[in-house]
Design brief:
The protein is mostly helical. The protein has nine helices and no strands. The longest helix has 25 residues, at about 50-75.
Length: about 210
């Protein structure tokens, strides 16, 4: 890897944390450059403007997710659509728990979709992710749609840390496995990006869907 490539990786890691916290509009290239230990002038040699940096960050997040999904699917033992989607869910759940900034960056990207280049990048991300999931699972359009719809809700719940809220509305939106005690007093697994009630492809199955 060249020095420039190494610097790009460093900048993207730094930018992920900054943009996750303050969004596209609230983060300056000066902040990113200082955190990465480079000058703003050198940052602009790597990325010509903030929009280009943010689009590259979207693609970087997407690559991280796709790489994790690919490794998980390569080890899958079943070809049943529901089982494949469950495998994807499990893989993304772990990644999202480990890399919460990933969730936040993609939510921030949706919020900045009024910018044409960012909107185009996110459209491309979803298009590729849908087709990847379709090819990997052979699931129906309805199952894939439910998979993504529930995942988008899960991202919001994760961003709001709904797992820490012990209230009826939180349990309703989170569903089983939300980290609260049920009526019998049993403790469920904490709710996070990707958590869900079971192996099927319906609601509760997936929480993070950035494509590459």
């Amino acid at each position: 890897m060249s020095t420039a490539d190494e610097r790009r990786e460093t900048v993207l890691r730094t930018a992920m944390h900054a943009f996750a916290a303050r969004g596209y509009y609230g983060t300056s290239t000066t902040e990113v450059a200082e955190a990465a230990g480079i000058s703003q002038a050198y940052l602009y040699r790597l990325f010509p403007h903030k929009e280009a940096l943010f689009v590259a960050l979207i693609n970087h997040c997407a690559w991280l997710v796709r790489e994790r999904m690919s490794r998980c699917l390569a080890a899958a033992e079943s070809t049943d659509p529901a089982e494949v989607l469950a495998t994807v869910t499990s893989s993304i759940r772990r990644l999202a728990t480990e890399e919460r900034d990933l969730v936040m960056v993609l939510l921030q990207a949706n919020c900045a979709a009024s910018e044409p280049a960012i909107r185009a990048a996110m459209r491309d991300c979803y298009a590729k992710q849908v087709e990847y999931v379709r090819a990997a699972s052979l699931a129906s359009d309805a199952c894939i749609r439910g998979f993504f719809a529930d995942g988008m809700l899960g991202n919001v719940l994760a961003a709001l840390d709904v797992a820490a809220v012990d209230a009826p509305w939180a349990r309703t939106l989170s569903g089983p496995g939300n980290g609260h005690r049920d009526e019998q007093g049993h403790e469920h697994e904490g709710h996070g990006p990707g958590s869900g009630p079971g192996p099927g492809p319906g609601p509760g199955d997936a929480r993070l869907f950035p494509p590459d």
